Amino acid sequence: MTASVPSLSDLSDEARSLLKTQSIELPSWAFGNSGTRFRVFTTAGVPRDPYEKIDDVAQVNKYTGVTPRVSLHIPWDKVDDYEALRKHAEDQGVTIGNINSNVFQDEDYKLGSLTNSNERIRRKAIDHHLECIDIMRATGSPALKIWLADGTNYPGQDSIRARQDRLADSLAEIYAALDDDQELVLEYKFFEPAFYHTDVPDWGTSLVHCLALGDRAKVVLDTGHHAPGTNIEFIVAQLLRLGRLGAFDFNSRFYADDDLIVGAADPYQLFRIMNEIVSAGALAPDSGVNFMLDQCHNLEEKIPGEIRSATNVQEATAKALLVDREALDQAQRAGDVLAANDILVDAYNTDVRPLLAELRESQGLAPDPMKAFLESGYLDKIRSERVGGTAAGWGA
Amino acid sequence: MTASVPSLSDLSDEARSLLKTQSIELPSWAFGNSGTRFRVFTTAGVPRDPYEKIDDVAQVNKYTGVTPRVSLHIPWDKVDDYEALRKHAEDQGVTIGNINSNVFQDEDYKLGSLTNSNERIRRKAIDHHLECIDIMRATGSPALKIWLADGTNYPGQDSIRARQDRLADSLAEIYAALDDDQELVLEYKFFEPAFYHTDVPDWGTSLVHCLALGDRAKVVLDTGHHAPGTNIEFIVAQLLRLGRLGAFDFNSRFYADDDLIVGAADPYQLFRIMNEIVSAGALAPDSGVNFMLDQCHNLEEKIPGEIRSATNVQEATAKALLVDREALDQAQRAGDVLAANDILVDAYNTDVRPLLAELRESQGLAPDPMKAFLESGYLDKIRSERVGGTAAGWGA
Amino acid sequence: MTASVPSLSDLSDEARSLLKTQSIELPSWAFGNSGTRFRVFTTAGVPRDPYEKIDDVAQVNKYTGVTPRVSLHIPWDKVDDYEALRKHAEDQGVTIGNINSNVFQDEDYKLGSLTNSNERIRRKAIDHHLECIDIMRATGSPALKIWLADGTNYPGQDSIRARQDRLADSLAEIYAALDDDQELVLEYKFFEPAFYHTDVPDWGTSLVHCLALGDRAKVVLDTGHHAPGTNIEFIVAQLLRLGRLGAFDFNSRFYADDDLIVGAADPYQLFRIMNEIVSAGALAPDSGVNFMLDQCHNLEEKIPGEIRSATNVQEATAKALLVDREALDQAQRAGDVLAANDILVDAYNTDVRPLLAELRESQGLAPDPMKAFLESGYLDKIRSERVGGTAAGWGA
Amino acid sequence: MTASVPSLSDLSDEARSLLKTQSIELPSWAFGNSGTRFRVFTTAGVPRDPYEKIDDVAQVNKYTGVTPRVSLHIPWDKVDDYEALRKHAEDQGVTIGNINSNVFQDEDYKLGSLTNSNERIRRKAIDHHLECIDIMRATGSPALKIWLADGTNYPGQDSIRARQDRLADSLAEIYAALDDDQELVLEYKFFEPAFYHTDVPDWGTSLVHCLALGDRAKVVLDTGHHAPGTNIEFIVAQLLRLGRLGAFDFNSRFYADDDLIVGAADPYQLFRIMNEIVSAGALAPDSGVNFMLDQCHNLEEKIPGEIRSATNVQEATAKALLVDREALDQAQRAGDVLAANDILVDAYNTDVRPLLAELRESQGLAPDPMKAFLESGYLDKIRSERVGGTAAGWGA
Lengths: 396, 396, 396, 396
Prior knowledge:
Structural class of chain A: alpha/beta
GO molecular function (chains A, B, C, D): L-rhamnose isomerase activity; metal ion binding
Pfam family, one (chains A, B, C, D): AP_endonuc_2
InterPro entries (chains A, B, C, D): L-rhamnose_isomerase, Rhamnose_iso-rel, Xyl_isomerase-like_sf, Xyl_isomerase-like_TIM-brl
Radius of gyration of chain A: 21 Å
CATH superfamily of chain A: Divalent-metal-dependent TIM barrel enzymes
Helix content of chain A: 40-55%
Domain Xylose isomerase-like TIM barrel (chains A, B, C, D): 63-256
Protein name (chains A, B, C, D): Rhai grampos: l-rhamnose isomerase
Oligomer: homotetramer
């Protein structure tokens, strides 16, 4: 039981350094309207184009200091001049992160994209990815991120096996088009929007395809994409062990939807995940794992939602860095079940918010990013300025 | 083990009569476009107004003979002249069934409808139901069906308890406005679109409110609205025992979505459900249980999807009617686990399609409704005629 | 964001009083060996009879100060002289709590107990409960707690409906035998050990039977007895609203087993549950809700496991008492989703261990119960003294 | 819609041949008593040693004709003279199949076996497998089957990563000891008996270890070992595509227990699984996939339970062989969702029991194996003869 609230100086030099250099990529689509199949509710002041989305990303980074990159989604974030977009971002301290393809919102993809038995449509889906690779070059993006809505709704609708084979062929062609310094990361998802089967439902399937492609193909783990009861930190540990965790998408869910604020449903799980990441040394900037948020805010305000998400990840990380690993290892080897568990839980139960406030102040930031942002007047500003035009929405 | 395929004459008089008089209500919204939060794909020839929806309902009834009623959804199916709509339906052998309210697609209902702490919004939601009751009078509808999207996305967002109290108050006012020959049926749903909690998540909650309201308030059980692993036939048996099963919504799902064709995911479960209904005598027309489809067709054709759904329910029913109840009771009392199970499974394994073909022919219908419909040319007709105007969609 | 670690004086008088008077009943069976169907591993020093179990209960109470009652399980805890057992307990500051019946470990109950179609067996099961009521009188126990393993493994094995009716009859006879100051509490469980259906699977079923019995019949909610994704705090709120939450069994589980240390799997859920209890005023000693642990320790030491469980509940309670309810109510009414959630989460993120250490010291207890117990030498003592005889085991 | 009940001659030559040569391995442990953590109920006449277990296996094969192999479990089935056991089996037309190791019922394995951080225990667990390999040689068993109960109950109890590494080391040593004609098959299980994490929880983990070991290491898929909602036939298709499906364990479950009669919970799922197997050509005797039952009978009679299981698999197989693959492929390529689904469902809805009766008669067997066995008097015989001695039980 910790006697008191820890301060920054209670951390080791290494831990402090990891906390200072931690970074989380933001999704451009988190700033537009989003919703469910029942209704997309609107929010005043949402961006109307990719430039305004980047402005909002920069706001989150301005107050948290940990979100210096933005993921783009193509075609939602297509612009005429990517150089201009890149410069717009960099002027505000933000770089372009992953490029996300989208092959699920075109009438042609009703029955699949990279897995479609219709060769014209499959060709179109591959070509879309080649276009994304061009945009990667134009924006300096390091990785192509692929999540597929492909799957079927009814048994027999299509051949599971044939779809796997077509998927492998499609991915091979896309992978071959990458430059040597570009990566491909493949996301899996247990369910939705396909109802009966999805073509990349689990980490095993994603891994199998990545192994077939090559070293620069890695798995994306998204917190919300698992069956109930799945031990996600186990998968993190396994993929890190195999050197194939390419990206980690933060969000959370209670049952079926995966777009709540990270840590909102199960903060202890988030801590356990960060604990695996920290214990495997994967938090370091050069670990090759791209940490990002992938969530949408339906009811809550967008920018505050992203700020809270970033600080939630920071808090879980700080707790994971506080775990007494030597004592833990000793208790584990002694087979002292309760003592080992207690060491982990002790760190989790610690209130790290003062420590993080200290960290921010040491970096010239306000100690409480949410408060500082809400007081900044930015929300009022965009609500009054962003009038007219088409509000960006999930899928736009 | 049955030696051969059973024919209609193998059924008892009572069973044959039940099969002949079975009826399933169709939802008007099954005939428009629908989809997921990712994309609503379009289908050629979908209706553009409630009249055309009823035309399609009538088609399903024409070929299956078991779908003589249609559920309307307000405001989606609002018309100027309900008398005309009613006549349009009746001219084609269809009557208006339940009226479904909709308090989830208006900006005001972002944080709830009948449970909203904002009195203006809660008033508006109640008034919408009073309007629905007027439409019931105009259309001769026997029951007001309420499903609420109400709930919260985050712990603490609102008071669970206070919302229950407001829900009870709202329902009491609505119930009081009903005529003596009108019923209120309250649907529960485990999750979605609310992410953290839903205000009527389970049959217990729905029952608690119905008990508080009075005898004409009953529970709606929707196949797709339960947690994984829930034994739905148990709930059917329990609600029938209590005399509070008001309606049964057929559909199916594999994991999180609930709008697949009934029986498509787990036909054995559908049989077990029908077995409880048959064994409790609840299939009879005067049992007070309204059987209906509540599903949407995203990828498949709408009218064929409804035809297949209706025949799936018929097949499960015919199998349930074939169960040798005397032998079953005997094996159960003898504690012969395998023998009792075998008696049930024997009926399930029987191919009842020839028997149902025979039934249809005895009623002057084609033996294979799907084949007859597909050959009728109706799909070509609506694809060419229903051009221009706004295609009806889920939510429209 | 709390600026610092709260102390006891930061609590309101009422909150402080509630924390001081909080009590948690311990199960006698938590102190014996337990395991899974694969293996029951042994632990040195486990009790060999009910007297030694009570000695261990007293140890937990000695160090935590919050576990002054013990639940007995009949026949596991049958003794010749209940007066002597009662005195043995009271001499150590412990009283006898609920009496738990056991109708699942006799060959006769293979196919059911209170629901069995065999009248001799059903009679035997009822009589067992009447015997339990006698033991209640002898021990001063206030409530009879019934959990049934009844159910079936295969569809058709028995009639779901007939079993409900027999259950109702059996319970009525048992309830009628209670004295006016005795209660009956009925526990539900989603699954296990029955594989296909359980006869009391959900709170709705338990409530339906309690309503039929009378005012002194109430529902037992056990944390581990729900389908995945179930919002347990909702059920707590609903049962409290109805005045029918009779007991709350603490434990936790990740997927299918329900006997882990409370708070071990999802501490945030435990906090949310305690938050509903606190906000409904149900923590007060006279609230009529019996809080107890119902868990077994398979791998970890028994007494330390119970100590950790008790302190986990205390911590969740203290956090719930720290919630700023006025600010929460205001944010909820304002529809400020993030702010409302933040108020709840702020309390959860607070480290209340120092506050609880302060509380214990104010009561003359050691600040860290686990440390104090481990240093007391009691474990060594029982390991050397409790040799020979039959170690108590789960089910013994 | 099939016009009539198909007969054997409606099958293609190849399909008929596959059905005739289909074989399913039986587990020796299915014939002893088994139960849950709550109670193991007894059954009269269960075997008292491995010889009597094989007698019962031979009975199932005598009546079904499809179960000519038996899996042994070591140490449960240890005998002094394996040559004698082998001969005892072969005299009755049964051969020894896989050898199953058991490293979960010894006190030493409380915290793990092949993953244990205690080197002495890990050594002991490895040695146990080497002994199993010796028994394989003595019995002519083709494969060593490993299922591990290893895992942890609490976060932090042990290092997930270190356990994976130790597992890899242990498996490498075991694999190296195999003869060139011996295989190692590694089973995964989502949960139980470990509560927090299992060391081989999913097919991905099993595959990763098999890939590291070599070509003769393959994955075992057990129907009951998945999270709710998992699409098992997808995994079958994927593992067959990779050439790494080593064995398929049949059983079924509704929620958490995995030892019900195969097909008892979801016969349509069983059909879909067999459909993937048939469509991939993996039913052929030389496919390298070992099909077996892995289930225990708690309430029902053992031998009849195994007979029903075998016929359930046969029925699902016959239905899968009836699928019109050409029409299916055409409908799939045409994107006709409903038609494709209908082709699959049409085969499923067909009653294949007469066809299988015909098959049996053509092989000199009784048309109804269950009836023939129950009339044979064998049950009475063993009930009267197998008195005294220790009844075999699950775990014995």
